Amino acid sequence: MTRRRAPRQASEAFRAALDRAAPKTGLAAVQAAWSTALGERLAAVATPVSERGGTLTVDCADGVWAQELDLMQDQLLERLRAELGERAPQALRFRVAKGP
Fold first, then answer.
1. What gap in Å lies between CA 46 and CA 35, rounded to an integer?
2. Confidence band (pLDDT; 50, 70, 90) for 16?
């Protein structure tokens, strides 16, 4: 007689698969943590698009959001540091997203 194993949580398998498949770059880490660190409202109007030399470039929905988020830069960096630790960017650069 064989013993049946207890079923495992599907979430564990998905998390492991995502960890293996996710790129191991600083930008990928920020993109994965973006919504959690900033909140859904801010994440909906700002998207991290590139990282170079510790500066993260973020595309914003419009100029007003770019300016507002620039003023909030210290708070946003603090949130990202809390979420990412050493992988957090050193600075943020906000720009208006180019159209399609």
1. 10
2. confident
